[in-house]
Amino acid sequence: MKKNFLALLSVLVIASLALAACGGGGGASTTQGEVTFWHAYGTGSAEEAALAKLLEQAKTDLPNITINVLQVPFNDIFNKYDTDVAAGGGPDMFIAPNDNLGGQARAGTIADITALVEGKLGDYSELSQGGMMYDGKMYGIPESMKAVVLWYNTDLMPTPPATTDDLKAMMEGGTPVAVSFGCYHHWGFFGSFGGQIFDDQFGFVTGADNQAKVADAMSYLNDLYQISVENGWPRNDSDGLAPFTEGSVAAIT
Fold first, then answer.
1. Between the CA of residue 38 and those of 64, 90, 124, 193, 209, what are the distances in Å?
2. Which end of the chain has fewer CB atoms < 10 Å from its terminal CB, N or C?
3. 99-153 pLDDT tens trace
């Protein structure tokens, strides 16, 4: 780790908590140092604009700390982080989804900040905090919550499907929908069919009844996939975003 990293991290953790709450700190910090910070927000996006404001505020709250910011393409940030850290480099802090948090915690490539944030997360929901924890320890500060939804164009789809049967019927009838096929986007469908993958303790849910419900969900998703293939519709969010925004696809997950 870089010299004085934990001291700097402590200051930055406290500052980021204040900034995340949309307020400045209670006074400028006297801690000195240099920090490298990565993010994957798109150029010109609302997220990038919000981050720029927070970093500008950080200049006031942390006047003696130089924050070097690097924008990394979203599809590259995990691989670049793991590769650079393995070579002895990488950033001090970075913003990314928690997809790889467990593996990174086990590999020791991210820091346990449990002690640093103790008593400072009162405004954060337990669900958001749980998303940044592994084996009872905190490895990051929640930045936002996400949910997979069906975005739809009201000009092409005045009334959205209310049920899974409705969605399938629309697609069978020729309404172009860009369903993103992959475990991340499939998640909500398991629950729609009454199935469950993990229990509250992140153990696998077993039992013939549950397995049958998950199988029903997968069978349904396979039906949607075959419809998408037959019509040449996009089958992932990367391919579907442009057609959706251009108005050639009625909906996207």
1. 19, 9, 23, 39, 45
2. N
3. 889 999 999 999 999 998 899 888 889 988 999 999 999 999 888 888 889 999 9
